[in-house]
Write a structure and sequence with these properties.
Structural class: alpha/beta
Radius of gyration: 19 Å
Number of domains: 1
Distance between the termini: 29 Å
Bound molecules: iron/sulfur cluster, zinc ion
Number of helices: 10
Strand content: 15-25%
CATH class: Alpha Beta
């Protein structure tokens, strides 16, 4: 069993962990929570993504403004773009209208809300019909949700749609010691049960996996990304997104100062993506946002970023990038 980086500094009990994680938010910014309008999404965009059938399709993503997620996951910084109160009924449909009026057409849509779409204090259930009505032009609807909130609300929302529903859940890692320390507030069994509930009800599953979460050595990061991919596909995932872990939310920055976290190397993300694509059990997407921070060589970074981008779209492994400067081969 690989070892993990464990010290006594990080609280062992959930209540103390919640407090510790929230207390360290102030480390990154005194005005960390952004001022948001409940009738405006905080971001909206269209980008290409490989679809389940091999096509590359335009996908709209709307980042909805809503009440903060009730969990306190160690690495989460999504609270920055949330409100402290539930939005009024009608606000979420208004946000969708606002974004769609400003974006080109797309085939699929992600409604990401910095938490759980099926959290009734985040997205009022009274708005489900109005939301569904605005999604009729899209062939796939992707929302995110904590596994403990995958329940009958998902089915009520699914029944209002005229297209396929996909739910994204954060698995993060299956490392038996690191997993509980991420403060996800659930067990791997609960994750698997939520995945089975989706599968039994004809709802597709997308899984988020952290590459090298806190408390993990670089040498072990690839192994655990691979085991997490295995677990995700065992749970029926149709797509797995590999996210290199970043500091920046306060708590992870403190762990970095204590030597309990450092970002993964680009090579680790590349190897994890290669492993996942070679499995051919579902789509594998490497998260490329702010990728340069994981690179140690400016000479080959553009080619390596382009390679991963193409691998994401084509869902095939490309030859590695060689580099005379850093010796990559
Ligand atoms: S469940 Fe998701 S949004 Fe909520 S704290 Fe955890 S990572 Fe953040
Ligand atoms: Zn190089």
């Amino acid at each position: 069993m690989p070892t993990v980086l464990l010290t006594d500094a990080y609280p062992k009990q959930k209540t103390q962990r919640d407090q510790w994680i929230v207390a360290h938010r102030a480390r990154v910014d005194q005005t960390a929570r952004h001022q948001l309008d409940p009738f405006r999404p905080y971001e909206w965009l269209v980008e290409e993504e490989a679809a389940h059938n091999g096509e590359v399709v335009p996908v709209t993503t709307i980042f909805l403004t809503n009440r903060e997620c009730p969990w306190r996951c160690l690495m989460c910084d999504l609270w920055r773009n949330t409100l402290t109160e539930t939005v009024p009924v009608g606000a979420i449909p208004a946000q969708i209208d606002f974004a769609l009026q400003r974006l080109p057409p797309a085939r699929q849509i992600k409604l990401y809300n910095s938490g759980s779409f099926f959290d009734q204090r985040a997205i009022p259930t009274q708005d489900y019909p109005a939301i569904a009505q605005r999604l009729r032009a899209f062939e796939r609807i992707i929302v995110e949700c904590h596994p403990l909130l995958v329940n009958d609300a998902c089915l009520r929302f699914r029944d209002l749609l005229n297209s396929k529903l996909e739910v994204a859940m954060g698995l993060e890692t299956v490392h038996p010691e690191v997993w509980p320390r991420l403060n996800k507030g659930m067990t791997l069994d609960q994750f698997a049960r939520a995945a089975a509930h989706l599968r039994d009800n004809d709802i597709a599953l997308r899984v988020f996996i952290l590459v090298k979460p806190p408390f993990m050595e670089e040498a072990e990061a690839l192994y655990w990304a691979q085991r997490s991919l295995d677990f995700a596909f065992d749970c029926g995932a149709t797509v797995a997104a590999l996210i290199p872990t970043r500091a920046g939310n306060g708590a992870v920055d403190v762990l970095a100062e204590r030597g309990e976290f450092s970002p993964p190397r680009l090579e680790t993300l590349e190897a994890a993506a290669t492993y996942g694509l070679d499995l051919k059990r579902g789509r594998v997407l490497a998260d490329l946002w702010d990728l340069e921070r994981f690179s140690s060589c400016a000479a080959c970074f553009p080619a390596r970023q382009a390679r991963l981008h193409t691998m994401n779209l084509q869902q095939t492994v490309l030859p590695p990038v060689g580099c005379a400067v850093c010796g990559a081969s």
